[in-house]
Structures are given as structure tokens and as C-alpha cells.
Amino acid sequence: MQISPSILSADFANLEAELKRIANADWAHVDVMDGHFVPNLTLGLPVVEALLKVSPIPLDAHLMIDDPDRWAPSYAEAGCRSVTFHVEAATNPRRLARDLRAAGARAAMALKPGTEFAPYEELLPDLDMVLVMTVEPGFGGQSFMADQLGKVRQVREAVRRHGGEIWVQVDGGVSAETIERCADAGADVFVAGSAVYGAPAAAEAIDELRALARRHRHP
Ligand code: DX5
Ligand code: ZN
């Protein structure tokens, strides 16, 4: 059960210090938005490269960008240990996943709330993680979409049939109120932005979320 706090809710003027506040997390989740695939613009490769130099924990890059086939491998080459592309934006997701692995990263595919998993199940052999979005991508602090839990279950079932170490990540509205349902449904990597950076003590919020997830681990 791993926690990946999203620095989207951190203080962008002090990112090094903000990463150090979450050093007890498993990953630091970095939301790259290009203003095209989603209607918001955050940061790109130069900032990610700077974060890689100072982060005490590995980076989990979530690329909400057009044309990931072209841009995503650079994030793996730069040193992000996990790189997630949106399958809706990819031209050749299988080749992209292979490129990410070849560049040394775990390869992950994200699904927007309106995107079915079934058409992409055949990509599992080339993937290390599937991200089920539990909000519309683009902004932090939105309400959790409980109607995505069925998809989390479906992905967990497919991963079990397939075997191997493929993680199931949830992202969006994950908090102490919602994490147990995500864990029950089969998620094992939990992104939380506002629930961590909006808490009085980020490190304590991480420990609390991890403890709640462990108690509700999918059988
Ligand atoms: C939304 C991003 C999320 C976001 C989550 O598009 O992918 O990672 O930061 O924020 P919370 O946890 O506040 O919903
Ligand atoms: Zn994200």
C-alpha cells in the first residue's frame, strides 16, 4: 500500500521544501499539464529535472499532455521512476509503454473517468501500473467520483488474472474519507494532493492514509 502525494497542492514557490515534508511517502506525484489535453497548465520537463535533483523520494510523473508518444520518454530518461501517460492521448500505447520501460521507468497507463478499461486490457503485459482517475483530470481539490470504483475492481480482477506485479493507482479526491473504499476495490497506490498538503502536518496525513489503506487491503 503506497502513498503518492501530489505536489499540485504544494507551494510552487518552495518545491524543494515541500518535497522534504513528504519524505515518508513512497513517491512524489508530479502532475504535468499542458493546457491542451487538460484545461490547465502546470510544469514541464525543466522543472521535473530540477525536482529530481532534490527529491528525497522517487518521482511518479502523471502526464496529462497531448502526444505522449513524443514527450513521455524524456521524463523516464530524466530519471522519473514511474511515468504515466493518458491512453486517450496516445497514438501507439504499446510502443510507448515499451519505450518507457526501455528508458528505465515503470510504465503506467491512465484512464479518464469516461474511458472504459476493457479495450486496453490487452496492454497489461507491457504495463507496470494502471491509473484509474477518480476525478476529471485538470485540477486538485475536486470531489471523489465513487462511480469509478467499479473500474478499479475490474482492473484489479484483470491484473489478478494476468499475474505479475502491476499496481492499481487511484488519483482524485482521495482522502481519509474515501481511501478505504479505494483499497477495498483493489487500489494499492493512492495519490492525494489536498488531503496531504491541506493537512496541518503532511507527514502525519501520509501515515494516517497508509494505515487506513492497509486495514482495508483488497483480499
Ligand atoms: C488532477 C491530478 C491530481 C490532483 C489530485 O488532475 O491528477 O493528481 O493533484 O488532487 P486531490 O487529491 O486534491 O484531488
Ligand atoms: Zn495526478
Please explain how this structure is put together.
- The chain is α/β, with parallel strands linked by helices.
- It has a single domain, classed as TIM Barrel.
- 35% of the residues lie in helices and 19% in strands.
- The chain is built from eight helices and eight strands.
- It has helices at 15-20, 45-54, 68-78, 93-102, 149-162, 179-185, 194-197, 202-215, and strands at 2-5, 28-33, 59-64, 82-86, 106-111, 129-133, 167-171, 189-192.
- The chain has an eight-stranded parallel β-sheet with strand order 1-8-7-6-5-4-3-2.
- Helix 3 (68-78) runs parallel beside helix 4 (93-102) and helix 6 (179-185) packs parallel to helix 8.
- Bound molecules: D-xylitol-5-phosphate and zinc ion.
- D-xylitol-5-phosphate (DX5) binds at residues 6, 8-9, 29, 31, 62, 135, 137-142, 171-174, 191-195.
Quantity of strands, as a count? 8
CATH class: Alpha Beta
Strand ordering within the main sheet: 1-8-7-6-5-4-3-2
Average pLDDT, all residues: 98
Rg calc: 16 Å
Please identify, by name, the CATH architecture. Alpha-Beta Barrel
| Structural domains: how many | 1
Q: State the secondary-structure class.
A: alpha/beta
> Strand content of the residues, in percent?
15-25%
Helix content: 25-40%
Briefly characterize the structure.
The protein is built from 8 helices and 8 strands. It is an alpha/beta fold and 219 residues long.
Q: Main attributes?
A:
219 residues; alpha/beta; TIM Barrel; 8 helices; 35% helix; globular; binds D-xylitol-5-phosphate; binds zinc ion
